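Researcher: We plan to redesign the surface later, but first we want a full-length starting point. Tokens attached.
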């Protein structure tokens, strides 16, 4: 019985010693999630125009900096589009009818590089005429957005007139 008491006491001491160590200092060479070097030199340009019964949306992402930059996406979804009517009711959401791979995607941009994202066509033939608001957002990781500071250059809202 004394043997068990000694083993339990030794185990307890080992656990205390293992848990009581000082935390290691962060190594600046190892990224700790998110890239703090991402600059705020991004432009996200959104254009929308009606063509018949479709609203055609074009989006460009431009690295305005003098350095290579990387955008990190937590899934294969690169953007979200939301169309709202004058009452603020959502009438279209891009992701509603799509499936996205749950994989981290990184896109590197050279200095000054501009990438045109896939053109999207939103059906508007069944919508009543009027003023609408289209919000386009790059679906980048939270860490990428936080690295931008207070301003999120990855969200743009445009007013659209549906006829």
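Model: Full-length starting sequence:
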């Amino acid at each position: 019985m004394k043997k068990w008491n000694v083993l339990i006491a030794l185990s307890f001491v080992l656990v205390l010693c293992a848990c009581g160590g000082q935390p290691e200092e962060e190594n600046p060479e190892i990224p700790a999630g998110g890239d703090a070097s991402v600059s705020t030199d991004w432009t996200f340009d959104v254009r929308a125009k009606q063509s018949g019964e479709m609203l055609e949306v074009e989006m460009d992402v431009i690295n305005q900096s003098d350095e290579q930059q990387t955008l990190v996406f937590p899934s294969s979804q690169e953007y979200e589009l939301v169309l709202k009517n004058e009452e603020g009711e959502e009438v279209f959401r891009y992701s509603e009818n799509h499936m996205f791979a749950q994989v981290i995607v990184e896109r590197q941009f050279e200095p000054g590089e501009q990438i045109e994202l896939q053109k999207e066509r939103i059906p508007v033939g069944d919508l009543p005429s009027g003023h609408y608001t289209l919000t386009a957002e790059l679906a980048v990781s939270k860490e990428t957005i936080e690295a931008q500071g207070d301003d999120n250059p990855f969200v743009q809202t445009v007013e659209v007139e549906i006829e």
